[in-house]
Specification:
By secondary structure, the protein is of the alpha+beta class. Helix content is 13%, strand content 25%. The radius of gyration is 24 Å and the shape is elongated.
Length: 383
């Protein structure tokens, strides 16, 4: 594939045409005698890298952000005030809490908030037929999966200062819960955990590399384009209550996260898309065509872009991170997925990445003056 070029004294591979006629490119090592023949670690800027550093946990040992460290190129602000979005695992088999485990409990499709009383009230409610500690409450779980997800977790209680949202129902009587306080509802939780405030490990590495390797003389050739950190949540998952988990055939378990590309497009239908529907996910350096969250016009590519390139970007480089999440799970550290970001590798799109290959874009008026795009004769640009 003749998509090799030299820019800023580095080798790159052409990914695709981007907005405003720009050309998105991905790093591919340093030239060797004018050739772009790097492979393995040599085609990356960093190896053996975690996608993100450790994220703060609450006093019970649960992550404060529902594993967004596995999903997000940029992260929310972590503080004690964010404890109300902490996910919890509560099992009536392991927690002998007579307040709710030994009784039927109310669940609501929605809640209202009384600011003066500082209390939630469950609305459109369902009361479980069996106690939560019952070893066979799958019928109740199926009912809950139809949209009854808010609960006070207290016997015969419809009003509370703290409300819990059922993120998923596990096997039998495991309940994975999101704690909400101070009038916050699920939509507020989403907005906060997906805020683009802090840099993750990979973004920090990419930005530092850009500062050290792309001079002002080169930066005027670079276009500001969208880098899509697609974190959409599918219908019937955390954002909605319109899917009955009878379709899932797993004890009423809710589908709490499947990224649309990673699960449906890539694994089931073999399709990819460059759509980036949510502004929070459209990462750019300016706000002209995105959210302006990036410090520099450089990031990493999405798995969709890698798939559309159809193997033209690999060149036997070490498997590198994309921006596309795979699967996310709630729970304690022991149940975290070690690789939840899809990777670009010589064998295609998979998991298990540990390397970083930055991507940027060249402006539409950048011209090639020599070369045929091969590894032995990469394109050289007009300067």
């Amino acid at each position: 594939m003749n998509n090799n070029l030299i820019f800023a004294d580095k080798c790159w591979r052409i990914v695709r045409t981007a907005e405003n006629g720009a050309t998105k490119i991905i790093y591919n090592g340093v030239p060797d005698g004018g050739k772009c023949v790097a492979t393995g670690d040599g085609a990356t800027i960093a190896t053996n890298v975690s996608f993100n550093a450790a994220v703060p946990k609450d006093s019970s040992g649960y992550y404060q952000t529902y594993y967004t460290e596995y999903l997000s190129y940029m992260l929310p602000e972590f503080s004690d005030d964010h404890n109300y979005i902490t996910p919890l695992d509560k099992s009536c088999q392991s927690l002998s809490n007579s307040t709710y485990c030994s009784s039927s409990v109310y669940f609501g499709r929605d809640v209202t908030w009384d600011e003066s009383a500082q209390r939630y009230t469950l609305t459109n409610t369902y009361k479980t037929v069996k106690a939560l500690s019952d070893s066979d409450n799958s019928d109740d779980n199926l009912k809950l999966s139809e949209g009854y997800r808010y609960t006070c977790l207290a016997r015969n209680t419809l009003s509370c200062e703290t409300v819990y949202y059922v993120a998923s129902l596990g096997d039998k009587n495991w309940y994975h819960l999101i704690t909400l306080k101070r009038g916050k509802k699920l939509e507020d939780w989403h907005n906060e955990i997906f805020a683009n405030t802090n840099d993750n490990n990979v973004k920090t590495i990419v930005d530092q590399w850009y500062e050290q390797n792309i001079s002002e003389n080169n930066s005027d050739k670079i276009a500001d384009v969208v880098y899509c950190n697609d974190r959409q949540i599918v219908s019937g998952a955390l954002t909605s209550s319109d899917r009955s988990s009878r379709q899932d055939n797993f004890y009423g378990r809710l589908q709490y996260w499947y990224n649309q590309f990673a699960y449906y497009k890539n694994r089931q239908y073999g399709k990819a898309s460059l759509d980036c529907a949510l502004e929070r996910d459209r990462l750019t350096a300016s706000s002209a065509n995105g959210n302006g969250a990036l410090k520099y016009p450089v990031a990493i590519i999405s798995a969709d872009e890698a798939r559309l390139a159809n193997g033209a970007l690999n060149n036997a480089a070490t498997a590198s991170y994309t921006m596309t999440p795979s699967v996310i799970r709630t729970g304690s550290e022991s149940s975290a997925l070690p690789y939840s970001i899809l990777c670009l590798s010589s064998s295609g799109i998979n998991s298990g990445c540990k390397a970083v290959r930055p991507a940027t874009a060249l402006k539409y008026d950048t011209y090639v003056v020599s070369g045929d795009g091969s590894t032995d004769s990469p394109y050289k640009l007009e300067w």
